[in-house]
Amino acid sequence: MKSAEIQVVGVRGLPLIRAGDDLPALICERVAFEDGDILCIASSVYSKAKGLTRDLSSVTPGERAERIAANAHEDPRFVQAVLDASADLLLEHPFILSVLPCGHIGVRAGVDHSNIEGDRVILLPPDPMAAADEVRASIREISGKDVRVIITDTCGRSFRRGQTGIAVGWSGMPAINDYRGDTDLFGHVLQITEEAVVDEIAAFANFVMGESDQGVPAVVFRNCGTWEGHDTIYFTPDEDIVRSALKSIEKS
Length: 252
Ligand code: GDP
Ligand code: MN
Ligand code: MN
Hints:
Layout: E1 7-10, H1 23-28, E2 38-42, H2 43-50, E3 53-55, H3 63-72, H4 76-85, E4 88-91, E5 97-99, E6 105-107, E7 120-122, H5 128-143, E8 148-155, E9 164-171, E10 176-178, E11 194-195, H6 197-209, E12 218-222, E13 229-230, H7 241-251
Parallel strand pairs: 2-8
Antiparallel strand pairs: 1-12, 2-12, 3-7, 4-5, 5-6, 8-9, 10-11, 10-13
Helix pairs in contact: 3-4
This protein binds guanosine-5'-diphosphate (GDP) and manganese (II) ion (2 copies).
């Protein structure tokens, strides 16, 4: 294999993560990092390590949570945890679609009831960009290597069935490879193409992780190269026609 071929390796043998665990240290015990590697970490384990979880027995649902829960046959305490994590809702029904304070839009605010014990739920990190920066700095401190980091989550999408991994936070690389102005094989100048590279890498990492009891919450990519672009991955509310359409359904 040429040295430039991309390599993808799941990080195996990590324990069940608990609040207070030093996740970067646990990963560095299992991976010999090289400069430029991209480390993808499932948001679920990042959040468990940081104690970003809630016990539903300590959540008291309000009136809105009770109402949404009754329509959706959900646990009102779970719905309250989702409302608490949301800056705004685009839909209440047939599923709760939340806008998070960090700009991410996701079903049930990305609050997870899987891969955690008992009645606890896992929240997304409130500032996932800062989370990725912090993991990157810790890896650099422990290993001396300049590693890029993506915090991933499994997320549904519009138009198609099935969930894929997406990047909720990243550090050390631009989210988007901006191809505008490049020429194609026939000399046409690309006008539109902005490739969301962090999401593509997150999706493949998510495939390697699996969704249930695989126990692989981190994946390392080697030889991905670098790209230039920008981090403006979220449409502004004005640009986002799907968001506007959902808002108008919700109001009608
Ligand atoms: P999410 O996509 O960020 O919501 O995370 P998932 O719950 O889908 O988990 C992704 C991967 O991490 C799966 O392989 C899980 O089995 C694994 N995983 C989740 N929690 C832990 C943990 O505490 N320890 C280990 N070793 N793996 C975990
Ligand atoms: Mn999740
Ligand atoms: Mn997942």
